[in-house]
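Protocol step 4 of 6: structure prediction from sequence.
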Amino acid sequence: MSDASGWDSSAEDFGQKVDLSVRIREILRNYPEGLSILKELLQNADDAGARTVRFCSAEARQCDGGTEDELSKLMSGPSLLAYNSAEFTA
């Protein structure tokens, strides 16, 4: 039987859970060095019909202060923010 989203509500959960941040890290680690990732992001934006694409990068930085939580460690860089103006559709 399908629910409102179209998914079969009688489907069985096989217990496979993937930590998204770990999976993304693995994908990026295995990406070829160089500009390949930027080319991929540009191609994705073009395929989606984006008129604007922006990239923002930040070098790694030391967290100041002694109360460093997990989020602070994660946000301490290095990082790349990619933006495109296409509307997201599922």
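Step 5 (inspection) to follow. The CA atoms of residues 63 and 73 lie 8 Å apart.
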